[in-house]
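Input record, target 12 of the design panel.
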């Protein structure tokens, strides 16, 4: 195929630092080097960038309002309309043969309606377990890309044929390859959390409580928190009222490369989520030999086991505390789990291999 255009629709793209942003950025960088497909990216607006931006080999249209922390009803009312209008505008400028859309957001609804009206072929990329059955069937959908077996099984439970699902392995960003393991700058054992500051979805409140419990018996520990979200004020107030400023450090939002260095300079990654797909931050930690304590939800058990980390029940503050205590008191076990994690990452596909799989799907539809 020559000179065909695929529109990639994602709610998050650099300079945003989410897992989706990192994934689609890596994918675009690989796709643009292939001769058969031209790439256009449609994403949400960012105050630090232009609405329309020309990159090396592709265009980015940031035409959809960024409403990540707006009320749910507002998102449902506004985002489908803006995504529909945006894709209509882009289609006037380019001959779009295929739409590759990140699912599970209000943006998806507008894209689905457009694909029905225009008859444009649509591929849904499903990266979490929050996908709704009716939404996953709405649109001129030709294929699904599922990042993990748990997500594939959920799609099958909706009545979607296995033959229409490509299951891919979640892999760390290419930037992980060049990062050097860093010598710890202090003697304290350092936990790190990377993700949205969200009690309902990410369990950040459980993490703060478990860390404080462990701190009562083990003083030489610290916690770094990277990210932003709706419960940022809660986290800051908790740290302040419990007088934990010298032990818990909120580092805000960081670039992917900065985050990788912070992880590499930590001992244990904590991810106490209540809902997940296959979190790439876990694989990023593995790539720098950092073991993980994570809730056994979604696709997490696909990559975390007792060889490279510890799984705990979601929402269980006591079990999370016990897991943190276990690794904090056993430096040798922590090191062994990290080494096993680094070996596991080396068995995963490369980005070139993953891109080949996705292009094969493009060519099929």
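The sequence produced for target 12 reads:
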């Amino acid at each position: 195929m020559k000179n065909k255009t695929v529109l990639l629709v994602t709610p998050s793209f650099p300079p945003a630092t989410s897992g989706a942003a990192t994934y689609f950025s890596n994918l675009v960088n690989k796709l643009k080097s292939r001769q058969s497909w031209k790439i256009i990216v449609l994403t949400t607006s960012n105050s630090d960038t232009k609405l329309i931006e020309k990159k090396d080999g592709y265009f980015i249209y940031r035409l959809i309002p960024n409403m990540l922390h707006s009320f749910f009803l507002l998102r449902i009312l506004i985002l489908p309309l803006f995504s529909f209008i945006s894709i209509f505008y882009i289609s006037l400028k380019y001959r779009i043969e295929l739409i590759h859309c990140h699912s599970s957001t209000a943006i998806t609804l507008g894209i689905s309606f457009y694909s029905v009206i225009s008859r444009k072929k649509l591929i849904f990329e499903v990266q979490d377990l929050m996908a709704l059955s009716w939404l996953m069937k709405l649109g001129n959908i030709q294929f699904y890309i599922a990042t993990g077996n748990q997500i594939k099984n959920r799609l099958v439970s909706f009545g979607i044929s296995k033959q229409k699902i490509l299951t891919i392995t979640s892999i760390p960003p290419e930037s992980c390859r060049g990062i050097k393991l860093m010598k710890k700058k202090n003697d304290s054992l350092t936990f790190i959390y990377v993700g949205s500051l969200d009690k309902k979805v990410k369990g950040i409140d459980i993490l703060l409580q478990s860390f404080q419990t462990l701190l009562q018996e083990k003083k030489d520990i610290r916690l770094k928190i990277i990210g932003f979200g709706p419960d940022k004020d809660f986290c800051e107030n908790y740290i302040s009222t419990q007088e934990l400023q010298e032990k818990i450090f909120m580092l805000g939002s960081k670039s992917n490369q900065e985050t990788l260095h912070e992880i590499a300079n930590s001992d244990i990654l904590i991810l106490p989520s209540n809902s997940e797909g296959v979190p790439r931050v876990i694989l990023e930690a593995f790539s720098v030999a950092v073991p993980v304590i994570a809730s056994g939800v979604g696709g997490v058990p696909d990559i975390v086991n007792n060889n490279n980390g510890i799984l705990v029940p979601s929402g269980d503050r006591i079990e999370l505390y016990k897991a943190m205590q276990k690794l904090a008191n056993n430096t040798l076990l922590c090191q062994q789990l990290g080494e096993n994690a680094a070996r596991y990452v080396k068995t995963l596909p490369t980005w070139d291999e993953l891109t080949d799989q996705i292009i094969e799907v493009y060519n099929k539809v």
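The chain has a mean pLDDT of 91.
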